[in-house]
Amino acid sequence: MDTPVTQPPDVMAIARMASVIVGSKQSVLSKLNELYPLEAKSETNLTPKFYSDMTFESQIEKLLNFNRYKNSAFVYGIMYYYQSDNSPERIQMMKDMNLPEETINYRIQRVELHR
Length: 115
Description:
The chain has helices at 11-17, 25-35, 56-64, 88-96, and strands spanning 20-23, 49-51, 74-84, 106-114. The protein is an alpha+beta fold. A 4-stranded mixed sheet has the order 1-4-3-2, sandwiched between helices.
């Protein structure tokens, strides 16, 4: 019996669909914190929360100081965060997108920073 061949999900397709926040470092950071207020990750809290391994400020600093963008007027990047939302609707949506288990809570936000 032949093993079926399946294509891995195109996780970057989600990135291409994401909106883009455009502005200065401070305005982008302000908008990120408004849209996705990060909290400490908790396994016991089942309400929808946003969390990250790195703060948005640290991610922006890393992006701005990346050698490739050091002298650029415009810096493009993706901010990483996670969303703990165990609602049946969210779970079904993620299953329909055929995402791997390890990326099911993974979220991104595209940004364009102007120096």
